[in-house]
């Protein structure tokens, strides 16, 4: 069996990927791909993860997890998602790092189905917007207490991804930027679903959130009239239409945190770009670029 773990990060997805795949459940099932409702398996996986703490799951435990996820059905490929697989939002900035337990928790997840062929999906986000969004998600009221003295300039996705990569020597690891999600969404859905299932519905689900309805209709019309375009050309077309028909309030984020100046936001954005370039060049990483 192939097992796909979508491990976050927080504030990059809001479960849209699993909802988009569930929309295609019948098509995927015909290709042996199961996308169960997260509430059916998340409590069971959490309990077993804590009990095992990185030890391999027994056959009985694996059977219990599959029963919770599949409810007696069979599958060749199983997609499991949880933005808190690596930690809860309140702990994502502990030890002055982004997801300090990322490597350890990734290893724990791999041991749930140690005999399976495994894939991990991980979306990143500019710390300039990620930290404020994470703070809001955490429900904390005191930002200083939330960030716990961490220097935002030192927060490195490159370090986090490297720790995950090191912990998963035999697994596929796919990484992308949340900022590119509207343009790469069909590709991301395809990576999660596997090579067998194609022509999935909902490839414009993210574009629909940031592009005017008229613009999206024109883009879809253009793509329908240009079936020979390869994925890269389709992404370029989507980028061009988005540039013209973007919904301003959907693509522009206002950052209002104590002490966060325009200069700091620019510095964080520059560091993020450097991290992304390094991650895209890492061996063993499939990087989905717009």
Primary descriptors:
single chain, 290 residues, alpha/beta, Rossmann fold, six-stranded parallel sheet, globular
Question: How would you explain this protein's 3D organization?
Answer:
The chain has 290 residues and is an alpha/beta fold. The protein has a single domain, classed as Rossmann fold (3-Layer(aba) Sandwich). It has 14 helices and six strands. The two termini are 30 Å apart. The mean pLDDT is 95.
Helix content estimate: 40-55%
**Helical run tally:** 14
| CATH topology description | Rossmann fold
What's the CATH class label?
Alpha Beta
How would you state the average pLDDT, rounded? 95
End-to-end CA span: 30 Å
- Per the principal axes of the C-alpha atoms, what is the gross shape? globular
